[in-house]
Write a structure and sequence with these properties.
Elements (H helix, E strand, L loop, with lengths): L6 H10 L1 H7 L5 E4 L11 H10 L7 E5 L2 E2 L6 E3 L8 E3 L1 H9 L3 E4 L7 H14 L3 E8 L14 E18 L28 E5 L3 E5 L3 E19 L4 H11 L4 H4 L8 H21 L2 H10 L23 E4 L7 E4 L2 E6 L2 E6 L2 H11 L1 E3 H8 L3 H13 L3 E3 L1
Antiparallel strand pairs: 1-10, 2-3, 2-6, 4-5, 6-7, 7-11, 8-9, 8-10, 8-11, 12-16, 12-17, 13-14, 14-15
Helix pairs in contact: 1-2, 10-11, 11-12
The structure holds fe (ii) ion.
Fe (ii) ion (FE2) binds next to loops.
Length: about 400
């Protein structure tokens, strides 16, 4: 059985090849069969029942769709009477009735509710180096929850239970359509006979994975039996984001803070335009894409997770306590004189140089006991425990 925390960087990369995968990402459809075993620990019906009861997700985070339209929430939820703030609570019997009638259940951000899915989402983030979210889709029967459509982000679909029929039609009339776009007309690709073009058609079974690039049209239909799949969605940085970072730098430039010379002589207006264009070109040269992406990585958010009681108590954790690294992307460590510095979630941390080897070891292995960490970092166990205690207070490691 695959560890969900390595589902993409190891299992998927072993099947497809890491380079083949990253070069085809967002550009081509990808199919891979990881085997049912690889996804068994991700999500079971028992897990789903439990999290529906304990997290009691409300619409719109949980919603039903049928034949391309949302099912009115009054049909399957009621307002909780005992709560101080009115909450919508799913009525189990109403949910069963709607699912039996062919509705599909969508549950957003499952990665925040179910640790194995969270671990898989984190692993995908390490592969694509963008924020990813996992949504659940559950349907019985032959109906389709959604019409033929495209999504404004890249997706990796993982079939967990049952089967689902997919038709992937490919990019439409507007290549690389964006979430906040200026033109929303986008029609699907058709063959000469007017039929929807087909890039791939097939039935996904448990353990099979497809990548559908942003903007690619697809039609997904039930096969008559149950289907449960996870859609991992992520939005990659585009040239627009790079240009926005460039624009933010323009506030530092006096010539850009000045008013445009609307009422000046034509010659003055032309000169001003020339100055603006020249400075933009200079700054665009300075803000190279690699530097922009490094800055973006340094702002990569951390998961909200907690490590009580260690960050509050005075004592250090025991040698057999498990230490987990919090930052999703391994941050580069830099030396600043006698100190080591690391940027996580947009914040810069500086520690005594002795912390460096411990940080490096936990960033590489992600989870280790205090004793193992001491071994990798070549420091005394007591010293490693003290450093772990400090790192946990800054939410850089969790102690279990
Ligand atoms: Fe979709």
């Amino acid at each position: 059985m695959t560890d969900p925390g390595h589902l993409f960087t190891r299992t998927l990369c072993d099947v497809v090849g890491r380079e083949a995968l990253t070069t085809r990402l967002s550009e081509e459809f990808v199919f891979a069969d990881l085997g049912a075993d690889a996804v068994r620990s991700l999500l079971t019906f028992d897990d789903l029942n439990e999290l529906l009861a304990t997290c009691s997700p409300e619409p719109p985070r949980l919603r039903l769709h049928r034949d391309g339209s949302p099912v009115p929430v009054d049909r399957y939820t009621e307002t909780a009477a005992s709560s101080r703030n009115a909450r919508r609570v799913v009525r189990p019997e109403a949910l069963y009735r709607e699912l039996r009638a062919g509705a599909s259940l969508v549950l957003d951000s499952l990665d925040r509710m179910h640790p194995p899915v969270g671990a898989a989402a984190d692993d995908l983030m390490r592969l694509v180096r963008e924020r990813a979210q996992a949504n659940l889709y559950l349907i019985w029967g032959e109906s389709r929850g959604f019409d033929t459509h495209w999504d404004d982000h890249d997706t990796v679909i993982v079939q967990v239970e049952g089967t689902k029929h997919w038709q992937v039609h490919g990019p439409g009339s507007r290549p690389y359509p964006m979430k906040n776009d200026v033109d929303h007309t986008h029609t699907p690709p058709r063959d000469a006979d007017g039929e929807l073009h087909l890039v791939w058609e097939g039935v996904l079974r448990p353990g099979q994975v497809v990548h559908v690039p942003r903007g690619w049209w697809h039609t997904v239909t039930g096969t008559g039996e149950v289907s449960m799949h996870l859609t991992f969605g992520f939005t990659r940085a585009t040239g627009v984001e790079w240009a926005e970072a460039l624009v933010r730098r323009l506030f530092e430039e006096e010539v850009f803070r000045r008013d445009l010379p609307r009422f000046a002589e034509p010659e003055v207006r032309r000169k001003h335009q020339g100055e603006l264009a020249a400075r933009v070109a200079e700054l665009a040269e300075e803000l190279d894409v690699d530097g922009f992406l490094t800055e973006r990585d340094a702002r990569f958010p951390r998961r909200t997770s907690f490590s009580l009681p260690w960050p509050v108590e005075e004592g250090a954790p025991p040698a057999d306590a498990r230490v987990e690294f919090v930052p999703i992307l391994p941050p580069p460590l830099s030396r600043e004189g006698e100190r080591v510095a690391v940027t996580v979630g947009g914040r810069r941390y500086r520690f005594p140089a002795a912390v460096g080897p411990v940080l490096e070891a936990i960033a590489e292995h992600r989870t280790l006991t205090v004793a193992e960490l001491a071994g990798h970092a070549d420091v005394e166990v007591e010293r490693a425990a003290q450093i772990v205690s400090v790192l946990s207070r800054h939410h850089l490691v969790l102690v279990r």
